[in-house]
Design the sequence.
């Protein structure tokens, strides 16, 4: 079943779109089942679980951290993360940058933008984003944006949210042509990833549609 789910999704993804298999709340043996089916990029959202899996599972796995990250948990995540998708505050970005400088690593990050209608979602407003892009960072590399659509069954609302995120990224690319690496757009999850493809997604984060309901 898991292998069939993966195959179905991968066959639908255009070339150049990366699938992050969201393995949070699923045990290591389930991650290994997906690994044996050929999946190599996985997403986790809890630092302790992230670290435990990164330390125990095959070293060629590409790990993305996709949850809210507190600055006191950086050492659990940054040594293992190929990308932190969920940078949602200037304070966190500065802390990651400092860690990167101190540890001789440049950390790839996505800036999480908040456009959904729920106030509970994290992320930057457009006005907060722009000053960050003017700064020079030594320990982080700004790779693009991450965002979530409003949690609704109304396709028009979801499309509107994705379109807005796409427009923000285009505006940034036009305003800061020197940001050559700012080329990633992580939108789309299990319930809406086919729609995200219409709005320039380069990364989709899919958990339930691959693994089923959370296991713990």
Sequence:
């Amino acid at each position: 079943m898991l292998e069939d789910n993966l195959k179905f999704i991968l066959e639908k993804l255009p070339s150049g779109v990366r699938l992050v298999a969201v393995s949070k709340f699923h045990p290591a043996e389930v991650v290994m089942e997906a690994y044996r089916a050929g999946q190599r990029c996985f997403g986790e959202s809890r630092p302790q679980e992230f670290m435990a899996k990164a330390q125990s599972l095959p070293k060629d796995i590409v790990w993305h951290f996709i949850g809210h990250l507190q600055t006191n948990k950086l050492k659990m995540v940054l040594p293992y993360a190929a990308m932190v998708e969920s940078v949602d505050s200037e304070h966190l970005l500065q802390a990651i940058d400092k860690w990167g400088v101190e540890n001789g690593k440049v950390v790839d990050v996505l800036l999480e933008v908040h456009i959904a209608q729920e106030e509970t979602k994290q992320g930057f407003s457009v006005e907060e984003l722009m000053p960050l892009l003017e700064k020079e960072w030594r320990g982080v590399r700004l790779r693009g944006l991450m965002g979530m659509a409003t949690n609704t069954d109304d396709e028009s609302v979801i499309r509107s949210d994705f379109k807005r995120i796409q427009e923000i990224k285009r505006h940034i690319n036009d305003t800061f042509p020197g940001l050559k690496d700012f080329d990633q757009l992580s939108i789309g999850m299990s319930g809406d990833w086919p729609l995200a493809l219409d709005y320039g997604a380069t990364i989709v984060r899919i958990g339930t549609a691959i693994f089923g309901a959370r296991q713990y």
In short: The mean pLDDT is 95. Strands lie at 18-22, 41-44, 62-65, 81-87, 107-112, 140-146, 184-186, 203-206.
